Amino acid sequence: MSSLTPASVASDSQSDKHPLRDFGTGPFVLRTLFADVPLSEDGSRDDIKVNCVEYLDSHLYVGTSDSELLHFFQVPPDPTDKSGAPTFILASRLRPAFAEPTSNTTRPGVQQILLLPTVGKACILCNWTVTFYSLPELSPVFGTTQVKNCSWVGGIDLNEVGLDNDGRAGSPGVTILLSLNRKIQVVNIADGARPIKKIDFAGSTISLRRDSIACVADSRSYALLEINQQLKIPLMSISSLDEPQPGNVVGQAQHISGSSGGLLRSNSSAQSRPQTVSPGPPAHRRGTSLGDLITAATRRQEYRVPEDDDPISRQGTPGTPPELAASQKALEETSRGNTPAPEAQVTRGAKPQPGFLKPLIASPTPEEFLLVTGTAPLEPGIGIFVNLDGDPTRPTIEFDRYPKEIAVDGGFADMSSSRTPFGPEEEGYVLASMGREFADGVHYGLEIQRWDDEAESDPTKYWLEPPNADLAHNVGIRSLRGTENTNFPEIVDKLCRRRFVPFSSGSLDASTTSLRSFDSRTASSMERMSKERELFERDADSQSEDSLPDAWQATRIAEEEDFARRLSGSTARLAVWSGKNIWWAVRNPLILRLDARLEKTVAAPNQASTERRELFSILNSFRGQDAKSELEFLTFSYIRQRVGILLLTSFLKSEDTPFSDSELRAMEEILVDSLLDPRVVLSLIPGIRNEVIETKRGMWIFGGVKSTAEEFIASRGFDKGSSTPNALSQPVLHFLRRFLTAWRRKKGFGSVPDENEVFRTVDAALLTVLLELDQHSTPGPAKARSVRAELYELVDTGVECFNRAETLLESHHRLYVLSRLYQSRKMVADVLATWKRIIEGERDDGAELIDGEQRVREYLAKISSQALVQEYGIWLANRNPKLGVQVFAEDKGRAPKFEPSQAVQLLREQAPNAVKYYLEYLVFGKGHTIYVNELITYYLDIVVTRLRTSAEAREVVISTYTAYRALHPPKPTYRQFLTDNAPVDDEAWHSRLRLLQLLGGNHDYDLAVIRDRIASLDSVAEDLLVPETIILDGRERKHENALRLLVHHLGDYDTAVAYCLRGGASIYTIYQTPQNQPLPTSPEGLKAPKRRESMPPTQDQQARLFRALLGEFLELEDVSDRVEQTGLLLEKFGQWFDVGDVLSAIPDTWSVDLVAGFLVKALRRIVVEKNETTVARSLSSAQNLQTQHDLIVRIEEKGPSIET
Questions:
Q1: More confident residue, 720 or 56
Q2: Beta bridge partners of residue 382, listed in sequence order
Q3: How far is CA 320 from the centre of its chain?
Q4: Three state DSSP letters for 905-939
Q5: Which residue has better confidence, 422 or 450?
Q6: Quick one: pLDDT band at residue 1081, thresholds 50, 70, 90?
Q7: Is 703 exposed, middle or buried, given 0-12, 13-18 or 19+ CB atoms closer than 10 A?
Q8: Given 51, 207, 234, 721, which is the most exposed site by the fewest CB atoms within 10 A?
Q9: Cβ atoms of residues 1129 and 1113 within 8 Å
Q10: Alpha-carbon gap, residue 703 to 494, rounded angstroms
């Protein structure tokens, strides 16, 4: 069974009894054509009703039951009144001539109005008599010509209806059909009414024709007629309870008799005679088509009709077909729920009597007819589609009751459908007039359903009632010959773009004032935003002042209305009437149908979840459907935008029924894809709406969307007092994050109007949301795919609302993010200034700048401004001298390099504490020895100052000497001992180590100044800087004093030995023998490496130093140390000593065993030397003999020489 959509009522009247159902969800609506038709001339009669209606070229013709034909002329509205409606004035009241019916027949009044615009004529059927008039003034034509005893007039070719409205010069005329008692008369209407032929088909009551094929019906059955070839195909009975008539086999083509003749003007009237079955050829099978029969048939001679059978006459007494009259009377009684009178019923023995059903025929396509059958007026009816051969073409359709009238509209081949001129080919509908039972009684209206949707197994039906219709009045419907272009002001109201004003006057100031009492941070931000808004609007408006005339807004509104009005047009062809009112049945545009569903959904007292499902269902009804017209494209956009607003408002109030994830994603997709200005969305969300930027040009959106948004803002559910983003829930904030991020991807699209203001608003709102969400993040750098990472991406890719972004970041104390914002604009100075604020301790809630000083140092290497490098290098050198000097020492920076002398001068003047570190870089890193003396002075000042001012430091130095002397050999050098025991944070200690390194290196420095500085400590304590003094003594050739200090004050015996080997050049240099490496044992093989400024020491120099060292060892206080060190020295380096000198120096009290090793080696060395001397002497003697021999040989070779 099919489903029936609840009744939808369309009305133009404000007094409609169903005000909430205006412009329902059905495919048709009723628009007033003529309200309160003056059916009675003096207004005293209420029993007169409208029988038929026709319209053509602003002329309205109304036939009444009082046998009057009313002619009205349409007066167009005032062109200046865009909303004005046309009015009708009465042009004439005509009582068409008719032959008085007999007493037992009815006088129905004007039954039919047939307009023939191609020949400028009209045929009027009044009280079973046809008369002829001219168009449009309805002047009688053809003299007194009348057609009496006619049950209907029509049969014009529907294939030509849409082509002949404008008339054609020299038209050959129009062929019509007249239904007489016994035959159908074919008549050509031109300058006169000329009968062409008669078709032997008695009792016909209706006919529709396509080319030469007419579908006709009598009171019992339907049939197809080929009017040229005189062929008939009987079809089904009107009542399914009726049996086929004898001789008629459904679906089999038959020949029928006919004749032709001229017009007869006798005074005799045709009498009603019983129908006779015409003989015909043998019946063909069901499969034989009418077309085949036409091709095979032989054209027969037409016989002239006897003169007394001619129904067209100038006068006479008409006769009414009694069977037809009885049927119509029974129909009227049955429709009111009454049982037909017994005498009106036809009995057929004991079988069930079929009800009297009015035959109904429509032609939805040029190849099809729609026929209606049923069992009784109050029972369902069945619509059957047949082609021109009588074969079924598509599935049947069902009517809930047997209709009183039907009309079809639309379809792929209906060029005269009631549709918008800008729309695609629309669906085909059939409209059936009937009564329907409701709780308050029977309602008369129209049942509407699709006839061309074969795929739908459960077709949807719609119910349409005339507004303010009397329940007792049947509803008439007819497809008119003329059409009317009409507009839907509702479309204009909904699609016309209007200026949306989200803020009332002074609302921003009020919100800012209220904020001051709650959150000082937000209040200051809002106050600054207010100033920025005023500045921006002033700047933006000042740039376009010349392009904005005084009346620009009125002009814009007029242009928008004209554009929307152009899309709101529709063509009306169907007329509906009831009582004294006539309406156009116009296709309900898709936008109004969907909008009505929205209104119904919102108005229904459903739960929020049910309402959401219905809203999504409305969108799904056209999901994936491509727009086929401009109106349809705007319809989809409008519905998406309005549904998006409704879903958003539901979401903001959905605390009890939260949205699911899928619903949230769907809503976000709708809001983005609908291209609704995101500023409208933001204006509906308290706490974020203050980010909306609106210039004097304003925001222009669909009027229907504007109304929906304004209703929500004005509702109680809108929290106008909540102006801070921290009042928003987490779901709302995350929705905004995703929605605004999706909108940012549209940057650069030319399809976004007011792009500058839109993306300024989007960026500001998104930044506000991300800052609010990021408040709960863990301090520190961003993690992948986190809110903080999105915040970084936002500011890194650049924002349109730069000034507003500054304000927001400052108010939220997010200085590091602010620095990234500056970096996106290449504002290097602001980046550094912001980092400086963070490093100096200003509040930064994100705590993202890790190792800020190092970041500054690295950043300075990447910028090209030498001035900024100098400024922040000096600042950094004052804060962290070691790091700061790296800025001036950078070799790979983009800025011009600083010359060392320039950098030293700058540091001396502005960062003196960093000079030492920069000099260290120059000396140790770059090898600039020119600064060694200055660096030594810095180190010496530090060390001397520390020792002079700190007794503890002095004690520590002295204690190191004591501790070092107490160590047992083997032990490291004293300098290595200092290095191993250096405190991490003792600058003086580390400076002393660097001082020792420089003093012991191959550098030129002022010895006298340094010695004076060291000597200045004697007033505090003597011999505090022993290693330094040793180095100086060595450079001044005071070797004996140096060795004395090494042996007696330091106890560094290994260094003393190394000092002798190096000839007193230095003690802590690269020539130093590594620890645990055996000392050299011979002067030839283990000499010190070559010095850079002089030759290595000679053996004599070394021997002299060793003798001095031996003397110092022999003076050691500790006897054991004295013996041990002396023995080791003589044993290992005995070759540098003379045996006599050693024996004379060693005390006589020492045992020979203490120097036995030395003596043994010395004696062995003497023996070796003696043997070596003997061998050398022998070799020299042999060499001498050889030389003498060679001399003699040479003399002999030359011989004697004579000298004169």
A1: 56
A2: 373, 398
A3: 72
A4: HHHHHHCHHHHHHHHHHHHHHCCCHHHHHHHHHHH
A5: 450
A6: very low
A7: buried
A8: 721
A9: yes
A10: 5
CA-wise closest residue to 888 among 864, 865, 861: 861
- Contact between 220 and 237 under an 8 Å Cβ cutoff? The reply is yes
- Count the neighbouring beta carbons within 10 Å of the beta carbon of residue 142: 18
Give the model's pLDDT for residue 877.
Answer: 93
| Range in 160-164, 513-517, 776-780 the model is least confident about | 513-517
DSSP per-residue letters across 352-400: PPPP-----EE-SSTTEEEEEEESSTTS-EEEEEEETTS-B-S--EEES
Let me know: does 1000 contact 1066? Beta carbons within 8 Å. yes
Amino acid at site 1082: S
Is residue 94 within 8 A of residue 71, CB to CB? The reply is yes
Structure tokens at 715: 């509702």
Alpha-carbon distance of 533 to 522, in angstroms, equals 16
Structural element, H or E, at residue 222:
strand 221-226
What is the 3-class SS of 93-104, one letter each residue? EECCCCCCCCCC
Amino acid type, 50: V
pTM assigned to the model: 0.72
How far lies 60's CA from each of 32, 47, 165, 1122, in Å?
13, 21, 15, 146
Do 303 and 272 form a contact (C-beta atoms < 8 A)?
A: no
Q: Give φ, ψ of 87 to 5 degrees.
A: -125, 160
List b or e across 513-549, with b for residues whose CB sees 16 or more CB atoms inside 10 angstroms: ebbeeeeeebbbbbbbbeebbeebeeeeeeeeeeeee
Lookup: tokens for 719 = 């929290």
Centroid of chain to Cα 1118: 93
Count of CB atoms situated within 10 Å of the CB of 1037: 10
* CA pair distance 1028, 987, nearest whole angstrom: 17
**For residues 695 and 541, is the Cβ–Cβ distance under 8 A?**
yes
Contact (Cβ atoms closer than 8 angstroms) between residue 958 and residue 1021 = yes
DSSP secondary structure string for all residues of 191-212 = SSEEEEEEE--TT--EEEEETT
- Which range (55-59, 204-208, 561-565, 927-931) has the least confidence? 927-931
Find tokens 């290097």 and name the residue. 828
**Confidence check: pLDDT of 794 > 90:** yes
Sign of the torsion angle spanned by Cα atoms 552, 558, 560, 563 = negative
Per-residue tokens: 857:
């140092």
402: Cβ contacts below 8 Å, ≥ 6 apart: 357, 372, 374, 375, 376, 377, 378, 379, 380, 381, 434
Sign of CA dihedral 370, 374, 377, 379: negative
d(CA 215, CA 396): 18
Mean pLDDT, the chain, integer: 80
53: β partners: 62
Separation of alpha carbons 403 and 45, rounded Å: 29
